[in-house]
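Hi everyone, sorry if this is the wrong subforum. Our group has a chain we'd like a structural model of before ordering constructs, and none of us has done structure prediction before. Sequence below.
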Amino acid sequence: MAEASRWHLGGTPKPKLQYRKDVEIRTTLQELLLYLIFLINLCILTFGMVNPHMYYLNKVMSSLFLDTSVPGEERTNFKSIRSITDFWKFMEGPFLEGLYWDSWYNNESLYDLKNTSRIYYENILLGVPRVRQLKVRNNTCKVYSSFQSLMNECYDKYTSKNEDLSDFGLKSDSEWTYSAPNMSSPWHWGFVGIYRNGGYIFTLSKSKSETLNKFINLRLNSWITRSTRVVFIDFSLYNANVNLFCIIRLVAEFPATGGILTSWQFYSVKLLRYVSNYDYFIASCEITFCIFLIVFTTQEIQKIREFKSAYFQSIWNWLELLLLVLCFVAIVFNSYCNIQIFLLLGQLLKNTEIYSDFYFLAYWHIYYNNIIAITIFFAWIKIFKFINFNKTMSQLSSTLSRCMKDIVGFAIMFFIIFFAYAQLGFLVFGSQVDDFSTFQNSIFAQFRIVLGDFNFAGIQQANHILGPIYFITFIFFVFFVLLNMFLAIINDTYSEVKADYSIGRRPDFELGKMIKESYNNALEKLKLKKTQKDESKERKSEDLAEQARREGFDENEIQSAEKMKKWKERLEKKYYSTEIQDDYQPVTQQEFRDGTTRKCKMRFECLTKTK
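Answer:
Right subforum, don't worry. Here is the predicted structure as tokens:
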């Protein structure tokens, strides 16, 4: 019956609604503070894995092995290799000189530590470098009948099905015999193919002269042939000064078209995680991260049990689930990397005369860093869930939600035109312009055109007629028409939302207002700020005094009236209890005006009587 009467009277009473509202805001504020602690911990954890020296170590090694030219040929370095002759010049010149540092700059003996090279005097060469190649079989492609008299050999591009597994050449050492791939090793994604492990492998010597003789012997016996599709050069370094491993891979691809395409990978990673006191602090942050993850997972499970299917209707809940999944994946990757490092690091460092395959460890460590980077990205995005109660952020979210249907319709029309131009550019310019060499490159090139980065000269040179037509029409339709339509959709929707907010159609509460009120209350309790009642009283007395001045009363009368009011307030405060209801009401502007007017009339009557 009480519920029915309450419904009849208009629903839940206002005090209860206000209480629920305050509880909801207070709960949101507590969740925000807890999440900020989690986010700070995650930032410390992620930035603790990154060392500024990683960039400098990569830069030093890349300049040594990529930019150093062949003596007497300034333009021949690893980046500029275009033929097999250039490749052997690099191997016997800059690569050999950069790999073996066995003496000081004044030709004194550098170190006598198991004959280990110290690159730039600070970086220990771990084990010995490894060189391997992958080949394809003959007749993996078909020669047209009219050309079979001119060419009876055909080597297709590299695939695992086309790979040559037979021995060749001298068939004596490991570089001439095929080695089966290790199934646990990752594949390499190159420019023109995806390559697996294994192949024809040989390791270098600790001696510089022996390695040089090895290269000369391989070159003279044609170790690289027409069937060669890729050559990998792998080696690893360790710098004890900054506790970083640098895993280096130089790749020379031999496409079926001829020539050489070079690429490289420099991975500076911290495999020895816990060495200094700061590392142990990062370990404590990792434990705190796991505790937070357990708490958040428990909360989300409780919410799913409570709201069931309604839980999945909120996009913020989906973001929460995605964040939890990424956190668990990051923990799995971190555990796997630590276990592998614990198991393999000792074995890799035990024998310095063989190749130490740190590429496997670096590969998974890089993947772990990528997972952490994506996790912290979505962790920052989640903050919008809490600041959405702010007026500005609420306007932004309302604008995006309102115009979502229009944006989806616009996106369909935009990408139809965009992909049509991308395919046109790929078919017309793909064989001559690098930006349009593949369909994916054409898409990225068009995004760059929208941002003002384009190669019009290359397009025009590829096709003097279709090039300018393609460029002008693309700029007109995509840049001037479609992008301005997109901005118009956003602007119109934002104007509607702002108009609704101006007439009072806004959320019932704002988190920013709650924080501001809590801040003001704290200052009032610390007596660093006057209460609102005192400020309203002062403001009211100032308004009365200003109105009295406008009506002609002099300052003495106004000051005497204010003194009288303050004297009366002190008496009431001293002799009346706050628990007793007092009939006295504060003097209003009308009463003040009436009282002062009556006082002036009495004074005027007294003056006339005396006269």
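For your construct planning: The radius of gyration is 39 Å. Confidence is low (pLDDT under 50) at residues 1-12, 577-589, 603-611.
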